[in-house]
Design brief:
The structure is a homodimer of 736-residue chains.
Chain A lengths: L5 H21 L70 E7 L1 H18 L4 E7 L1 H14 L4 E7 H8 L10 H4 L4 H4 L6 E5 L3 E3 L3 H5 L11 E5 L23 E9 H6 L2 H15 L7 H11 L4 E3 L6 E2 L7 H7 L4 E3 L13 H12 L21 H10 L7 H8 L4 E2 L15 E8 L6 H7 L4 E7 L1 H13 L1 H4 L4 E7 L7 H10 L5 E4 L4 E3 L3 H11 L9 E4 L1 E4 L10 H10 L2 E3 L14 H6 L4 E3 L8 E5 L15 H21 L9 E3 L5 E3 L6 H8 L1 H22 L7 H5 L8
Parallel strand pairs in A: 1-2, 1-4, 2-3, 6-8, 9-10, 12-13, 12-15, 13-14, 17-22, 18-23
Antiparallel strand pairs in A: 4-7, 5-10, 6-7, 11-14, 15-21, 16-23, 17-21, 18-19, 20-22
Helix pairs in contact in A: 2-3, 9-10, 22-24, 23-24
Chain lengths: 736, 736
Amino acid sequence: MLPRGRPRALGAAALLLLLLLLGFLLFGGDLGCERREPGGRAGAPGCFPGPLMPRVPPDGRLRRAAALDGDPGAGPGDHNRSDCGPQPPPPPKCELLHVAIVCAGHNSSRDVITLVKSMLFYRKNPLHLHLVTDAVARNILETLFHTWMVPAVRVSFYHADQLKPQVSWIPNKHYSGLYGLMKLVLPSALPAELARVIVLDTDVTFASDISELWALFAHFSDTQAIGLVENQSDWYLGNLWKNHRPWPALGRGFNTGVILLRLDRLRQAGWEQMWRLTARRELLSLPATSLADQDIFNAVIKEHPGLVQRLPCVWNVQLSDHTLAERCYSEASDLKVIHWNSPKKLRVKNKHVEFFRNFYLTFLEYDGNLLRRELFVCPSQPPPGAEQLQQALAQLDEEDPCFEFRQQQLTVHRVHVTFLPHEPPPPRPHDVTLVAQLSMDRLQMLEALCRHWPGPMSLALYLTDAEAQQFLHFVEASPVLAARQDVAYHVVYREGPLYPVNQLRNVALAQALTPYVFLSDIDFLPAYSLYDYLRASIEQLGLGSRRKAALVVPAFETLRYRFSFPHSKVELLALLDAGTLYTFRYHEWPRGHAPTDYARWREAQAPYRVQWAANYEPYVVVPRDCPRYDPRFVGFGWNKVAHIVELDAQARQARQPLLLCPTLQEYELLVLPEAFTIHLPHAPSLDISRFRSSPTYRDCLQALKDEFHQDLSRHHGAAALKYLPALQQPQSPARG
Amino acid sequence: MLPRGRPRALGAAALLLLLLLLGFLLFGGDLGCERREPGGRAGAPGCFPGPLMPRVPPDGRLRRAAALDGDPGAGPGDHNRSDCGPQPPPPPKCELLHVAIVCAGHNSSRDVITLVKSMLFYRKNPLHLHLVTDAVARNILETLFHTWMVPAVRVSFYHADQLKPQVSWIPNKHYSGLYGLMKLVLPSALPAELARVIVLDTDVTFASDISELWALFAHFSDTQAIGLVENQSDWYLGNLWKNHRPWPALGRGFNTGVILLRLDRLRQAGWEQMWRLTARRELLSLPATSLADQDIFNAVIKEHPGLVQRLPCVWNVQLSDHTLAERCYSEASDLKVIHWNSPKKLRVKNKHVEFFRNFYLTFLEYDGNLLRRELFVCPSQPPPGAEQLQQALAQLDEEDPCFEFRQQQLTVHRVHVTFLPHEPPPPRPHDVTLVAQLSMDRLQMLEALCRHWPGPMSLALYLTDAEAQQFLHFVEASPVLAARQDVAYHVVYREGPLYPVNQLRNVALAQALTPYVFLSDIDFLPAYSLYDYLRASIEQLGLGSRRKAALVVPAFETLRYRFSFPHSKVELLALLDAGTLYTFRYHEWPRGHAPTDYARWREAQAPYRVQWAANYEPYVVVPRDCPRYDPRFVGFGWNKVAHIVELDAQARQARQPLLLCPTLQEYELLVLPEAFTIHLPHAPSLDISRFRSSPTYRDCLQALKDEFHQDLSRHHGAAALKYLPALQQPQSPARG
């Protein structure tokens, strides 16, 4: 212990008191920020996706820029911090913070995830997210949060459709459409017992702990109910554009990209009537809202200024073209929340945009898996499934040579379904979706695949968060891909050393929306006519609930990077005879496709039945409700073979109770006489290389096969004996 | 404006005063944390790479664990913050903060970069890094910081070798060797005018702004000179292991992973004599230091307790097996610095290790490019070259269809040379390094390449920060790769949409350490004998400073994934005749290699000269000081052709003044009769796919070629006319 004690500490305390008093005398003793806020300051929209401009931007000429004092909301004598003098008391440790966000469509769903990542990165409190979503966003975000399994985060969904009638009467020129306006009805839409909530636009990014923002509720006077940052652009004064007549506001008005809402007080104050009355009255003289909810919030506040608590500017740093935000952040040097409130988003031009862009990219590309870290100081209910998963993982033996396989099998990957805009195919009874999976090194297959398959596709992509952005740019840069709205891309986020091939296939399969699926692989190009031919075949064969068949599409391969793809079976046979094409894996693994009986196919005019045989792994068209792939097969090997076995076994089982004679009733595998698909060459994958070079890898695959067979016996009893020989085949080093 | 004013503020100020006085009475008025620290607390080493254990860990049985009170260093009544009651004044805005780190070798250099990334992520002040390095670390870090170009970061290097004599007399069992001890001599090694510095181990990670740590200097009394956090494990009490006799210390002693040093006061107090005297005296009874500098720091502090300022525990949260740190961080819930002070590093077992690991991985995988963001509130000298780069980028026209190419050409990529441990080859006059570049999708080539080329290699890898870690694991998991110390891997960090092929080649070329280089591509496997054959040929041909020749290695290709690699020219010719092999790009681009004259090569018994011709792009062996590749060629196309032109043109120019008859003196391109290399198949790269599908891409490549030719004319005058026809050849869609 060092000799320290009261005398020194007394001196320090006295000094502090002195400083405090000095500050009091110099700054009028205002411990909040408000006194130092200048008159109304300009900013940006703040409505749902929060752009600066109305839908049809008028003449963009600059008329004059009003002066704006710098005001970072910094306390006296504090040059390096944005806090308002003495900090507001921090929220009680582990208090649950509530956040509401309105989110609709594919693109906003991507945005909201970046926002949530930034929030989770800095947060120290449990969070409850209240998401008002349309059906698209709900499907995406529900799947995402379910698979993300972030501790101490609860998510509730609210139907945007049900709120629409409450705001659809308001004429609105803002591109966010009706969704922006829905922030107005949150006091009634959110649970009645919820008293406080932070409302955020999808285009904000956190640069600090959200609990600091929550703590600002403590600044509210007894009557204040809405915390807002002022607008940070003179555009809002209505003097930047000709013929732009803004809605009434205090000065530049407030930006609604970040709102602290005292829901309890708003409900008490009759908010519903209040904003409706104001909106109706203003709409008598104004044609429409140009900034959705923000116009109405400002009009109400102008009438009831006592409602608003002005928040320090750093909590909503607005990055539009003409932003005056620099006066805020350059003084504060500490940003809390940035707001991309220009319709140009990251392409906006302002002095420090590179800085902000880098900051945003940090969270855009941030590996969301890392945010699964627990809040160990705040005990909380683990996310659904997390506890069992932890137990299963804990039971693994790290010394087991197959540990990597076991761990990979158990990994729950974050899944972002329909990462890009997608239109579901119209319901058609014989429609077929092509199902496949890929990683970054196969992106270049997509364009060709789109040319060969004009129908719907459901593709699972195994990517990191950063790669998902590269993929986005890749699609945007490709006219072929950008034109296709019927291709659904589902991002499965990478985690672990082995490629989870069957988990990926299951994600793509589960998201297929047509009655039939063509289970393909990304390095195959189907015949140009295959899509039409399959639909016609399904119809002609009368497939449906009664006749369950797997249609086999014969597989071929070329070893040439560039070759003239055959336009017909005749052309294909000519190439086969010329040695330009081979039947698939003819040299390396003929039994994978031998039962297809290529000799018979040459001559066939009609579909013909073939029998299942050991190691058969044809590319098939099956009903969407077919068995899922066995997720135990990760990395290279036996992943499709096991699926065909499952398919065969389940079909047999399904028929047994009816027929009581399973041996006579073989599963119907029908080879289509005009169907074909061709494998293009590529370098061996990392996983196949490991399989070839590592005896352990091969041993582990064998162990997986054995366990698969045990499970099969358990589920199907004696009928599974049929599949046993397959498991006893000698190993080949080139299975796929 | 809201009606608020003095009365409310006065009340708030009064309340604060009251609280302050209450705290003063309750806690003895100590505004620092020390009073609430219990007796000495345990922790971990803190020396250079900061492991917990001495080099030879004794019997690891646990004897007893002493009790340790929780002490997050939190102020009274503040449950959510780790600060000690009222904050120390923050450092003046934009004050330059000084940080010293000792770093030696390849692995510590990787560690230090992760530390620096975490520091840069949170920092708001300009930094000056003082790096005490060995030659290896200096080469790595100098290149890294030079190419990183982070604004407001200055780096100074100090030669560890020069400091060695000052500490090498101290017997030391710690695995950091001498380097850990060097922290003792920083007061004399750092510039005399430097008064304060933060000293860090390479295995710490920041979770907060380093200026908050710097601000703790303000807590020092007039005589204190060393700020430290106590050890956080009972191991340091010497009662966890049998026969472990610790050095003298106050309680558990202090951890030297994070140190605040008042260099000025230490110099004044005669630190050099002080620690030497103490160390000499203790070494009379103790055989060696087991924790390097930490033992000595603690022994000195025990003798002079007035020197030390105890820092709040959150500034060095120690994560060893038996850590007691939970008592610190679970109370504080706010971590400032974490310290991986177990020799097991990330594999250490403790309750919340997953949390800490995720936190560490955040910065390990963080895209360092994003840290190039400027500190716009603190004006600072831009890093060398940054200003010109900014100007050049600003001059680009975003509407130019080739904008992406222009931008990619100008991009300065962060470069981490010798990412993995590497031993330079011994100097041999005819030695040859294989030079190539690759990205993640070609990793599987490395093992085969190592089998084919037993000599030194210099490989540039184009990776993201996250991929670099995957690459590290890939090498560690491969016995073939892990065994090779003569392969240097240089990571060039990804940025931009086009593959900067020639910039990568230049990095690999610049790092080659032998007199000759074999300029290859990653998808080629050389003949097994090529390395020996090349060295013998160089010797036999008498190549050296007088005879400058490029030795041509004839290139072939196979379209098969798996084939039996020929062991001799005879075998190769047989495969060629059988149609299993072709001459390279025979079908698609024969003129790229036509001048090699394969017909002649079949029969050749001795090296023969060939003439340069348009579009020739052979794989060659040249002196290391050959011309660099033209970095303007990014993405696909013409990148090697241009280099061969450069090579030819420069050689001609060099001889002109001597011979005055350039047309007679052609550049010596010698084809070696027994040399060959074979291209293996792979799917087309993204860049070649874009080249094929995008007319704009092809147009931009043509523009680059034209500009290349203009520059060639400018540099070589009329002699460059020779190369003109090449530029006028009709375009082919399959150039590489």
